[in-house]
Amino acid sequence: MSNIIKLLPDSVANQIAAGEVIQRPASAVKELMENSLDAGATQIELVIRDAGKSLIQVIDNGCGMSPIDARMSFERHATSKISDANDLFAIRTLGFRGEALASIAAIAHVEVKTRQHEDELGTCLKIEGSEVKSQEPCPCASGTNILVKNLFFNVPARRNFLKSNTAETRHIIEEFTRVALFQPEISFGMIHNDKPVFKLPAGSLKSRILGLFGNHYNERLLPVDQSTQSLRISGFIGKPEFARKTRGEQYFFVNNRFIKHAYLNHAVANTYTELIPTDAYPSYFLNIEMDTKEIDINIHPTKTEVNFRDARLVYGVLQAAVKKSIGLHSLSPTIDFDLDPSIEQVFVTSPGDDLKKPTVKIDPDYNPFNKGKTGDTTFPRRQPADTGWQKLYGDTPSGDRDTGEGPDELSTGGKPMAASRGRFFQVQNRYILTNIKSGLMFIDQQRAHERILYEQYFKQLSGKGQASQQQLFPYNLQFSAGEAEVLRTLLNDLSRLGFHIETFGGSSFVVNGIPADMHENDITLALEKIVENHKQHARDINYDKSVNLARSLAVSNSMKEGKKLSETEMEDIFDRLFSCQVPEVSPDGKRIIKVLVQEELEKLMKK
Ligand code: ADP
Ligand code: MG
Predict the structure, then answer these.
(1) Residues 6 or more apart in contact with residue 516 via CB below 8 angstroms
(2) Continuous segment of H or E residues that includes residue 181
(3) Ligand 1 centroid to 390 CA: how many Å?
(4) Could you tell me which residues come within 8 angstroms of residue 39 by beta carbon, excluding any fewer than 6 positions away?
(5) From the CA of 8, how far away is ligand 1's center (Å)?
(6) Tens digits of per-residue pLDDT, 256-291?
(7) Residue 206 contacts by C-beta under 8 Å, 6 or more apart in sequence?
(8) For a Cys staple, 499 with which of 168, 230, 475, 494, CB 3.0–4.6 Å?
(9) Which atom of ligand 1 is nearest to the CA of 101?
(10) Mutation to probe ligand 1, out of 38, 59, 127 (largest number of atoms < 8 A from CB)
């Protein structure tokens, strides 16, 4: 019998390996730029042509290579970064597998010019499809200048699978971003078809983010910095109000290496759940620094996945860090308190009423992030004063107002505030209109009510705040077997919300009590929605039962559009809204408040 097994020639083995490491031009960009970082470069330029399909060039001022190392670097498993398996858990460099250059050289025309600082002459090496074509001494700058031409020239299948130039360029920009983001002290440049794409001088992390994503990020970022004994998390997160509809700017790094990690993403996303619309994603740019012994990065050839020895610890610290940062951020972006109050004169409301300070019914211990836990000191509590509502009217002791000697922002030449007339109007049975110092405030009554109920329910679900309940003449409910199963799992939470529901064999239930704000006619629909909602979303990675229940019930029980409100009811909504933690947005992220400032009113009147 004849033997049929043979060892593959290196060129073929390299081509196969290349399939794993180099999927598209962007993968080569990543590997080459990482090599430059590993070589200690402080300046790295990327030049591409035709989305990298005809040329990828990376020029660095790093340590360079000796002629022999240059030749060696293209062999498979040739690396200067590790020498035995133990080193795998002490990796500080970006590369270590020693297969990138070998892979690239197997499927492209490569030319490298490199010189170590101390050498007078450098070396120039040409390789095509794993075959060394030439190597000779050459004068060149210290550092490494590598050109990769005609990628996949000998793998037509790969070449044909490449996407349009636009799509491949997008991939390259993404890889470039991942490499450059957490290396702000290193300067980077990128040129595509002779046109500059990025010019990123060395600077702060913030300036690097602005350089990569645009100057408008300046007002969108919140700093994050949290250290514990074993790790530090630092960087920036996006303010909730700038959350995007597409999963875009989400960047985790571990020891400055970009990684993907669904579990950690959940830690961040979860913290934002009630602050942003359900279909929006928060931005983040975060680096986790920790001992290399605590992580395993050798689980995937592209090295973007890692295993943490204690992922739960990282999760916890990450969540605390993000909470702290959001908590420190003032949450009143839509209200500008400091505009000229003369506009108050323009709108005359019904006279007679004295200005009353809104009564605040607030539990100062309430913290929407503190889900059922006590003693969470990582999140600074937001005191009611922070909402700034007092400033809307000028929070002065009675008497001051008459003399015009209130706090500075109220001193309007001794004039009484216009707001001391009637305070609330209703427009189209939909908006509550009130006159504030800086202009006219519109409040969407239904969304405001949703926010109020949502925070109230959330508090009840986390064991704070007592539900008020109305007793019912026992009310029968019938569900399908599957739905009944879901409802049973929710009964405990529902009782915290004020429901008193008993199982009644099989899939029947009896409702004896419901939340005080609920209308008896809405019971079936509300519970059906709650069950349906839970069924649909329970598996989502961002799912939070309390948030979902509170949101669902708040929507069911809120006043319906077009409800006529009395002045007292409007005042009540106003007071309760501004006792909320997040009065500006509804639980599903829609705007509640709009202030028309003087300038806007003047513009309107000019037309
Ligand atoms: P790895 O980065 O995993 O070690 P590579 O195939 O990417 O493997 O590179 C092989 C070796 O070539 C590296 O270990 C390094 O010693 C050397 N090298 C690659 N690129 C550069 C560079 N730009 N400057 C200096 N040395 C380099
Ligand atoms: Mg490498």
Answers:
(1) 467, 468, 469, 470, 498
(2) helix 165-181
(3) 62
(4) 60, 62, 63, 64, 143, 144
(5) 24
(6) 999 988 889 989 988 888 778 777 889 999 999 999
(7) 218, 221, 236
(8) 494
(9) 6
(10) 38
